[in-house]
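We keep the chain:
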Amino acid sequence: MQSFTFYNTTKIVFGKGQISELSNLISKDQKIMMIAGGGSINKNGVYDQVMSALEGYKVIEFWGLQPNPEYEKCMEAVQLAKEEKVDFLLSVGGGSVLDATKFIAAALHYEGDDPWAFLDSGEEIKSMMPVGCILTLPATGSESNGNAVISRSERNQKLAFSNPKAMPVFSILDPETTLTLDDRQTANGIVDAFIHVMEQYMTYDVNTPLQDRQAEAILKTLIEQAPKVKANPNDYNTRANIMWCATQALNTLIGSGVVQDWSTHMIGHELTVLHGLDHAQTLAIVLPALLKHQRKQKGGKLVQFGRRVWDIQDTGEDSVIQKAIEKMAGFFEEAGNPTQLSAYDIKVDDCLIAAKRLFEREGKIGERGDIGQAEIEAILRLAE
């Protein structure tokens, strides 16, 4: 096991009706900016619950954060927050709204010319405005980690930062807020959470049996719950299990002391920038192809994955690996996310620029640092 520091400062408030706890989580002497997306929280009753809980508070509102949140929109919020002299940012929505809120919180304390430096040059975040979260779409795990991903269309970039200071002070997770999610949003959340686990688990063994089994438990639970939510989208308990899986998938616990990859995410971000696919849609395309390409390097974990997660008991390891990848790809497909570029009428030749862009920015990627431009191109061709 590698050395690590585990420190998660986010208070999780989970369950039905917990939005009412807001008044116990934010001081009344703080001026709040509520940050939200396109208006779904008006339709599902979340907005009314928030405003009821914050009766008597000073609250201003900022709307319009979109999936793959845009830098320019974030900077509009930064300007308004400065003008209004807010003290606390409350994200109400999915992971994209929360990622944007984290960036806004960091930008408000930035003393340089352009806070994009947090993303493109890795400049350290020294302080941030406090952030709270009411999550309505389980997927990113952003509600319990210090990560954020922001897009900047004018530069054709989608980049991430990670800093413990970006962890929300609290996150309210009420599974009832997810009952109105459509099939696409639900599938994206399940696939995103699944692949978050895989990026931390599917590398090579460093003698971490506990972390491995914790990761496998999340994967098996998602596999178990996905058909249930498809058959009965209004089942509270299923939604609750999926929501908690998504949080556990990326709250830094299962990644402590292990080797991590994140190549699938890096390649996926490029596909989103180039072709506008949803984040989880790109991940479902890339991961099966990447595992086929890296089956030798990841062989030990692939066999373990096949036997423990998919209960494949073949004696031949090559057969286990092949079937494990096929079963995983089938799971993504059944959830609603195709695993081939052709399903979106995208030609692989139109994606190869992603390999060049990624290699020029990051160099070789992967847990062994052995995935360069040629390897990324080969992976994309396997996803054709």
Summary: The first helix runs from residue 40 to 43. The chain has a mean pLDDT of 96. The chain has two domains: 11-178, 183-382. Residues 203 and 298 are 6 Å apart (CA to CA).
